[in-house]
């Protein structure tokens, strides 16, 4: 079986493409990091890939709103190809800045399969400040990206992560099971004694999908939580395991998301 | 036609709420409402339809709405307000938001802005409530920095009458025709001195700003041009001033001092590394030291790790945000500019500041019109600067510190460091070596040249006063640099498209090109080819401007087309501005006229040596005299709330320390989120190896004993790394001397002693220096609120940074207590060493004994400890530093969310009182916990070292200490300790 091919966008201040590629690689996919201008120039074709990934970063320095300028660039140059891609049985993931990009592009929530409409905004955290910490998440979605996962903990690192949408669209999101991830008080926020919702997000939303679940936009970073040693309590867990004479794990919870994507194409 | 676009939030705006809260905290309790409009002033004609398109691209319809206004139309406010304040940039100041907006418009509408058209961002804040115009003016001052921004205030009625805010386009207007002046050096010594101090005279009699060349230097320059038989041009003088500046040549460290002919740097710093490397023989892990933009050590068979720590003090005093952001993105370029280009993998920061809760007004001029920013503004600004620079660049910032002392009120110290990763070989070529060859093209890449940062290098070599040039202020543009960085270290480097690379930092092109020209032995530049931000710059300004985000490459002619095309595809501007030669001269042409023609040897090595003389003057302090407090519980909570002890989690959390996925141990450890003194990253994700980073400084010790101050900083920086699991045989050090009044023999004496300790202790520990940077005049000369002249000098500050290699990241130890019942050990002696300690500082007391460092004994202990870590014998460990044992054990307890119960009765050392035992800052100590089952093995491993079992970790959430006599002297609830620890910066 061939490894599913992943195109990971880069350029203009995106910055998490390398570790995202590493996550896909560990999961058994074949990732290519591609500068957006090389797609615009036709050197790379989206049609040749099964998975599109918009990684984390600070595209255009978040000027005019996080993800806005990069989404504009895609709209101006690559919209047809992207629109074609999401309508096929393929997968798309937008992580953090990538989540802001897919929301600005209207790849999520894309009600009634209508891609391209902005329905959700990612606004400044309530603290009006960038925050780096771990959160706990509840999964309520049939998205292939999250298959088999009920809850998981991942880190966040963002300044504009507060989901905002109209009441009407919120109801639609809820009804359609498109609110894929919600912040909950779980293992890590209890360990760190921090509030469950890190940014004041509406309805505790941490990630949403399109109606099919194939397109996922999430603020937390699976690629920064894919190793055991990235967990905030790994030193305590290590000490407990060493005393029990057990081996230390190497993986963290985030890797499953990449593995699920690979599994989807098997 | 100019149009104003205003974008405002429909619903809740977190920025506005934060801003409102801030103003209310500042005392403006009567402000009841505040809202913000993001403004874009578009200086280009568009149709109404196009404008609608533009606004939809600049805003988000879900949360925002917009207002359009042309000169002919009027707008009405959506609500009644008292005053409105608009803050925008001054002409020529980097405006990142407008750059992005312009790109969005150009790309989306397929149009081009011409040179004379533009777009300018601003922020418009509406305030409702009972306010006077004076209040509004003060608020405006608190919201902007007049050196880089403009503010504009209107009352409600003015706004209504005028139909909105005024349309202002901050265009740079320079009408002067660029020209080159000849400077007559055939003048009196007095005039030579004037030229050196205040700059070249303009036609109107004004001076151009400091050259920072003293009479000895000016006379050498005079003699050189006499020999050349001509007058120097202004650009030649400026060029020499840059290259010879203290900032670039580090003359105070290079010049002979007393009996030390080779100067402090060669004798004490460089020599230490040479001796250590020789002694280590085949275990030498240094690869490139002191020769490049960063220092490099071996990481594994395939990679090198680089490190460099810079200071950006003077710019940060003028504009804290701009100073700090350019500090961090500037030192990133020292990484990208290492060898053939290293990839930045971690940032480091350090801020030495005055108490943000105290506002001592200071002025730069006797008329009291030029006010210094408040301590709080400086603190907020530098924190924001590193936030913007580091986060936007996608470089994690795991490690840093804040340190407070009122002597930093006049000049804050801002340290910025970057760790880099580079493959040892690129296409079989050693990556740390580079050489520009004759015939290579000189290529400038990245940003454009503007007036920003003129005289930065010479200015930071001088004492700060009212003549400090405002143009020295720069603002970074992290995204322009990120594009450059990616294009270099992820693409062009691996194609070997260039032969050499360096950063355009201090002194701009004049320094970077002249430096690279040493490799080929000459250069010729066509200065008019350098791309400018706006027309009208004088040639000398182009040559020395410190505009950010630029690097210089030496590109073989055959590779130019390929490089140019790659850079274009990555949105990076690249321009050929000259050629490297072997003429032995640095030649600069401007529109075919030669404006610089200086012998390269003279430029680099022509500066005369000056004999420096020191005079020892040790401040005699009284013996320790302080009453033992009755209630040590209260002492502990007071200590925990001190600025230097407190949690600064609000900084650690806002600095992304997990990007790149290389996180191992971070700035906040344990469930109690304790700020740690060291962090670990894993720069190669497929490897088990890690890099540990730490630092230490003891500025308070300097006035008593600068030698021991330096020794303590070195010991602590090493110990912090060892406590986390670093191999003591693979730790390297970096030095940053931030001194004051370095023209005074007494200060030079302190410098000499501190530098000597660097040699003695680095050699003793076998920890080589690999890089360093100094800043010698951290003095402020100004006026207090009564117009009285005052000088504030920083305490002589030496920051020692440590970097170590770890083979297995799972064999590392965090500081938090892990499991109840674990045994607590104190390693090392506790002595009556409290002078200038944090404890005495709290009591406003002094003493005469700062800690001594027994490096032989410590070294032995660090090695034993490392072995114990390798055997998984250590459950937690913390290095005991500022604040002593009491602070260390409290952090351990809060960190683990567990109690701790210890006895001081049998601790080793000569300590004589309970409070001294708790707060002594004796060096060489660690506090560790182990599993009870490991007792025998641990004690065996530590055999031959000073250590004592002093207690255990408890489930009961209490910090309990029995004193030297065995009676209980401390009993504090964990919750109260944690509260005190987090109190000071709770609302920051």
Question: Can you offer a commentary on this structure?
Answer:
The complex is a heterodimer of chains A (266) and B (988). With 266 residues, chain A is α/β, with parallel strands linked by helices. Helices cover 30% and strands 22% of the residues of chain A. Chain A has helices at 17-27, 36-40, 68-87, 97-105, 167-175, 187-191, 234-243, 255-264; strands at residues 5-10, 30-35, 51-54, 91-95, 121-123, 131-139, 151-158, 162-164, 179-184, 205-209, 215-218. Chain A has a 9-stranded mixed β-sheet. In chain A, helix 1 (17-27) links the parallel strand 1 (5-10) and strand 2 (30-35). In chain A, helix 1 crosses helix 8 (255-264) and helix 3 (68-87) packs across helix 4. Chain A starts with a strand and ends with a helix. In chain A, 60% of the residues are buried. The mean pLDDT of chain A is 97. Chain B has 988 residues and is of the alpha+beta class. In chain B, a hairpin with an 8-residue loop joins strand 25 (678-681) and strand 26. In chain B, helix 2 packs across helix 3, helix 13 runs parallel beside helix 14 and helix 13 runs parallel beside helix 16 (478-492). The chains are: A alpha/beta (266), B alpha+beta (988).
Short description:
By secondary structure, chain A is an alpha/beta fold. Chain A has eight helices and eleven strands. In chain A, strand 1, helix 1 and strand 2 form a beta-alpha-beta unit.
Outline the low-pLDDT stretches of chain A: none
Structure classification of chain A: alpha/beta
- What's the Cα radius of gyration of chain B? 29 Å
Shape of chain A: globular
N→C terminal distance of chain B: 43 Å
Provide a count of the helices of chain A: 8
Q: Roughly what fraction of the amino acids of chain B lie in strands? A: 15-25%
Strand order of the largest sheet of chain A: 2-1-3-4-11-10-9-6-7
Helical coverage of chain A, percent range: 25-40%
The residue-averaged pLDDT of chain A reads: 97
Radius of gyration of chain A: 18 Å
